[in-house]
Task: inverse folding
């Protein structure tokens, strides 16, 4: 039964057009005619460099010949060229030390021409070009005949052993999968391909299977072959056939892979509004497995954040009244950015906004879960961007432990600091040396730096950092605390006379009991 | 290398007199792209285009596409052909697929009804010598294709390149291959060898050993911060096909400039494998020497002076320029180092050796996440943490990953999933996920299990492998990072890159039985071939192929190994890489 009859019997198949198995289909006869008509004149063509036109000119007409003619001519010429290479290397290789191998490797690769090219080069250099063209024309003829013979094998259901066919795919030679009709044969073919691990062979054989058996059977066989199904999914993805891939993964029971893929598909939506819609749809359809509770939560967060971002953008887009927006024009809106970037943005532009305002950082903080560390770092950096450096006491009010502030936040901070909720503060949450560095890099004034430096417990570290960032006030504080009058007097030389720090130091020397 | 072959290909496809328009998707980077351009120009190629969605203007009768065998690319090409074929029926289309014409390319064109309308060609590049001892195929997509998507079709191209080398240097008698991709290469190599003329079998081998490894044999090395000079250059500026693109401030010029990096530059040859800490002092010493020589010239007699100008001056000037560039590069790298660089290193080594408090490492990681440091560097640390802990507990995983998503965006849910597919991020207690056994590790485990049932159980993982292969040097081993004798110098003596270590063990004649036992701790299976008794086992020259990317840190370790084991080691890889590149290749766009 040929395929036309099959289709008539089974009705139209809903699968993609059979792709690989009709290399040598009925219409190839037409090609053969066209080919021979073309071929005979070209074999007698003038010897001036048209050698390479012979096979390729015909390729245009006979499609199935493309691969084969290239590879076979290659094979033939390969022998001659290797003879040349061998002869060349035989002279020096015997005496050559092992050391020379690598040194020469670049040059050798450079000078080595692939078979087909080297012949052409010879002929173009006029070395017996006439005879060579004759030879190659003959060689060509032989190879074309060889190929016809080979093709005729596969045309008449002469089933080749699976490994033979797989090797042909691997080597880029013509092959036919039509002759593998029984399920057993098809699976043997697929399994042979899986052993070689070659993606090209595996995909060719598995598509042959898909196109020729009903889908439940296909899925059953794929279940037992994870590598094949992995390749199949990535094939569908690359063809933008996500729906099919998600369905396939679902039927294999890989709910996590299917869910992630559905999420990935939703991400490609063009506008944020459509994205929200698609994310909700994906959530509803693909995140039902209870094992995915973590991922489900992440996607829900994503939707919530995106909706808020859209609202913030709408509010800020045309807002001429917010002085911050005027002073620091937005480089980009915050839609699709991460949660921390959004918080950073809100800290920059809506620091003083009422909590009910959509852009309020405090509102955002309550709506989403953050760790103390994330809050503090982002607030610090966001405010520093607009040249405002909050004091540690101001920041403490952002932490989950204080007052009525965000229940969510305090839960997350309870985890992160493992019970030390009560004592959580800037000091225990952040590495202060990093904070000082960040502040100093953003141009924070010395008195702010001094407050932060004072949070460091070790006097030595405090001194080191204070000196490093030239924070005179902090240095003076350390010396006073250490009751080191000599050091302070010595340090005063570093401070410009008359500056507030200088006066402070002077005052300390006079008044403090050393 | 590329040029003559590409030229040959062009004359074959379009004929030397044809006026041709080429739409090229530059799949080959750096030097190769430049050479391609030049090669095309000299063969009547009028104009080159980067492949885009819309077709280039039709101005000549032939058009050549040079593309990777990626479906989406081919779809673009098919659309071009469809739209231009209507208006210009006489135009000829050629598609050159690099590196391999795979089945789905042919079938896509067939589906599009273009089979026979366009002419298909295949071009398989051979190894490109980046240096005397370093070959590359510049297949930058290999890692993602093979290790994330399970498409090992690139292995056939690697096998072809190795086959070419065997054609030139004789069949390599001793083979040790480990890993899934390596297995695929060995398979393809066998099939290719059968096709060769039998004559070649009897050629005296000039290369004694062939080693093939997968990148997944050692993910820790790329995840750690690189400390050799060449590695640091690659991390900071990016080395592509042996060429670095120094920005303007390093060159002291107005624009950035591409500088080839190889052993022809004697200064570079001296510093490339050094520990970064020793590079600038070496450069300064050399700079002083050069200056001293030039100063001597001040007191020379006219005769000496003439001699000096004729012979030495030019060299000295060139030396001075090179020294200047590298000093500036050092300076630029040092400047861009984070304040907490030391803490970063301490954390990394603490994780690897298991010496430092893990809790401290976790706090550091969370702090890095809260500070929104770069995504790749954060993910690197996260993966290192997961690998060295043999996976995270479910609760830990959920907590840390939510922090990743908060800092870098929820879309990285996909990235995290990809990292878990690779196995460099893992949840150790998958038992909690009972429903349908659909934990993220399942696909990887299945895949591995299919290849070998000898795999270590999840959980015994990396720590066991490190112990078995002895990757963490003993405390009493003295590591001199400036005059190294031990390969772990590349990581301050905290860790020895696994691939050089295994090759070293094999070369030092460790029994193949104990070696293959040790290799069982790495993912994948081992293939070992030894020459039949009586036949030559070949000289002490080893070809080491690393599939999925080789870091310059490993290159440095191999160069030291070559010295200490008195073996000539030639490295070959699909591409040179860094942890940053590995991670970026699986990051959700």
Result:
């Amino acid at each position: 039964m040929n395929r036309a009859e099959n289709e008539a019997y089974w009705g139209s198949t809903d699968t993609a057009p059979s792709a690989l198995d009709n290399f040598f289909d009925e219409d190839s006869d037409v090609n053969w005619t066209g080919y021979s008509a073309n071929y005979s004149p070209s074999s007698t063509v003038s010897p001036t460099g048209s050698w390479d036109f012979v096979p390729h000119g015909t390729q245009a007409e006979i499609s199935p010949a493309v691969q084969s003619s290239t590879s076979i001519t290659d094979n033939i010429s390969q022998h001659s060229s290797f003879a040349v290479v061998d002869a060349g290397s035989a002279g020096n290789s015997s005496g050559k030390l092992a050391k020379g191998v690598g040194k020469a490797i670049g040059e050798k690769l450079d000078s080595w021409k692939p078979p087909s090219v080297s012949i052409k080069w010879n002929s173009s250099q006029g070395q017996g070009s006439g005879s060579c063209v004759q030879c190659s024309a003959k060689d060509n003829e032989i190879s074309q005949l060889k190929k016809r013979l080979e093709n005729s094998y596969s045309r008449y259901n002469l089933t080749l052993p699976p490994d033979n066919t797989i090797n042909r795919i691997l080597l880029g030679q013509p092959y036919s999968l039509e002759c593998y009709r029984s399920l057993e044969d098809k699976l043997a073919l697929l399994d042979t391909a899986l052993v070689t691990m070659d993606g090209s062979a595996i995909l060719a054989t598995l598509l042959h299977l898909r196109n020729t058996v009903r889908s439940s059977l296909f899925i059953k066989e794929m279940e037992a072959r994870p590598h094949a199904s992995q390749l199949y999914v990535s094939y569908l993805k690359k063809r933008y056939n996500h729906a099919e891939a998600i369905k396939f993964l679902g039927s294999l029971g890989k709910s996590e892979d299917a869910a992630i893929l559905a999420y990935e598909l939703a991400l490609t939506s063009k506008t944020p509004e459509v994205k929200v819609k698609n994310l909700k749809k994906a959530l509803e359809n693909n995140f039902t497995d209870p094992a995915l509770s973590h991922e489900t939560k992440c996607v829900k967060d994503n939707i919530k954040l995106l909706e808020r971002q859209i609202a913030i953008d709408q509010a800020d887009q045309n807002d001429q009244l917010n002085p911050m927006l005027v002073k620091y024009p937005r480089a980009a809106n915050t839609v699709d950015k991460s949660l921390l970037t959004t918080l950073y943005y809100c800290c920059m532009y809506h620091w003083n906004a009422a909590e009910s305002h959509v852009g309020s950082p405090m509102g955002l903080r309550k709506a989403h879960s953050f760790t103390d560390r994330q809050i503090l770092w982002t607030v610090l950096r966001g405010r520093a961007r607009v040249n405002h450096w909050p004091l540690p006491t101001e920041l403490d009010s952002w932490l989950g432990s204080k007052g009525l502030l965000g229940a969510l936040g305090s839960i997350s901070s309870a985890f992160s600091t493992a019970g030390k909720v009560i004592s959580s503060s800037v000091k225990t949450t952040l590495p202060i040396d990093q904070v000082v560095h960040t502040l100093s890099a953003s141009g924070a004034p010395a008195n702010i730096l001094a407050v932060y430096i004072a949070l460091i417990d070790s006097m030595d570290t405090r001194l080191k950092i204070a000196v490093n960032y030239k924070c005179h006030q902090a240095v003076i504080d350390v010396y006073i605390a250490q009751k080191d009058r000599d050091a302070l007097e010595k340090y005063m030389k570093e401070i410009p006379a008359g500056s507030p720090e200088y006066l402070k130091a002077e005052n300390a020397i006079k008044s403090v009991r050393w | 290398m590329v040029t003559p072959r590409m030229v040959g290909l062009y004359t074959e496809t379009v004929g030397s007199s044809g006026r041709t328009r080429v739409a090229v998707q530059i799949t080959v980077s750096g030097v190769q792209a430049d050479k391609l351009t030049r090669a095309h120009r000299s063969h009547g190629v009028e104009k080159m285009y980067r492949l885009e969605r819309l077709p280039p203007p039709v101005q000549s009768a032939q058009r050549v596409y040079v593309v990777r065998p990626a479906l989406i690319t081919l779809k673009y090409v098919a659309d071009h052909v469809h739209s231009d074929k209507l208006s210009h029926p006489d135009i000829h289309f050629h598609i050159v697929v690099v590196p391999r014409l795979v089945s789905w390319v042919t079938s896509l064109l067939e589906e599009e009804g273009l089979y026979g309308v366009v002419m298909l060609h295949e071009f398989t590049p051979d190894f490109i010598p980046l240096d005397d001892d370093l070959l590359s195929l510049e297949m930058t997509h290999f890692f993602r294709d093979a290790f994330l998507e399970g498409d090992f079709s690139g292995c056939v191209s690697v096998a072809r390149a190795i086959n070419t080398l065997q054609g030139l240097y004789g069949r390599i008698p001793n083979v040790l291959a480990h890993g899934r991709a390596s297995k695929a290469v060995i398979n393809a190599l066998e099939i290719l060898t059968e096709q060769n003329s039998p004559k070649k079998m009897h050629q005296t081998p000039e290369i004694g050993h062939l080693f093939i490894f997968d990148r997944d044999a050692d993910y820790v090395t790329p995840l750690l911060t690189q400390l050799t000079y060449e590695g640091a250059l690659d991390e900071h500026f990016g080395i592509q096909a042996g060429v670095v693109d120094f920005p303007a401030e390093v060159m002291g010029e107005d624009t950035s400039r591409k500088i080839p990096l190889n052993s022809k530059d004697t200064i570079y040859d001296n510093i490339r494998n050094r520990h970064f800490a020793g590079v600038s002092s070496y450069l300064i010493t050399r700079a002083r020497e050069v200056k001293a020589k030039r100063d001597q010239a001040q007191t020379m007699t006219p005769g000496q002076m003439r001699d000096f100008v004729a012979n030495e001056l030019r060299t000295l000037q060139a030396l001075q320029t090179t020294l200047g560039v590298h000093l500036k590069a050092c300076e630029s790298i040092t400047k861009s180092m984070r304040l907490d660089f030391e803490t970063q290193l301490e954390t990394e080594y603490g994780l690897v050796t298991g010496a430092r408090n893990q809790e401290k490492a976790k706090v550091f990681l969370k702090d890095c996440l809260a500070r929104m440091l770069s995504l790749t560097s954060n993910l690197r640390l996260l993966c290192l943490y997961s690998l060295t802990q043999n996976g995270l507990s479910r609760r830990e995983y959920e907590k840390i990953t939510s922090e990743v998503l908060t800092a870098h965006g929820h879309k990285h849910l996909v990235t995290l999933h990809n990292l878990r597919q690779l196995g460099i991020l893992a949840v150790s207690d998958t038992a909690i996920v009972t429903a349908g056994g659909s934990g993220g590790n399942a696909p990887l485990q299945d895949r591995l299990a299919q290849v070998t049932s000898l795999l270590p159980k999840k959980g015994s993982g990396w720590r066991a492998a490190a112990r078995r292969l002895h990757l963490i040097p003993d405390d009493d081993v003295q590591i001199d990072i400036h005059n190294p004798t031990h390969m772990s110098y590349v990581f301050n003596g905290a860790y020895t890159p696994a691939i050089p270590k295994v090759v070293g063990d094999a070369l030092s004649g460790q029994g193949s039985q104990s070696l293959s036992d040790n290799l069982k701790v790495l993912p994948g299976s081992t293939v070992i071939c030894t020459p039949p008794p009586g036949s030559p086992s070949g000289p002490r020259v080893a070809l080491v192929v690393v599939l999925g990317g080789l870091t310059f840190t490993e290159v440095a370790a191999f160069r030291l190994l070559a010295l200490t084991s008195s073996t000539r080691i030639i490295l070959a890889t699909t591409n040179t890489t860094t942890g940053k590149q590995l991670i970026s290749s699986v990051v959700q766009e």
Summary: The mean pLDDT of chain B is 84. The longest helix of chain B spans residues 313-336.
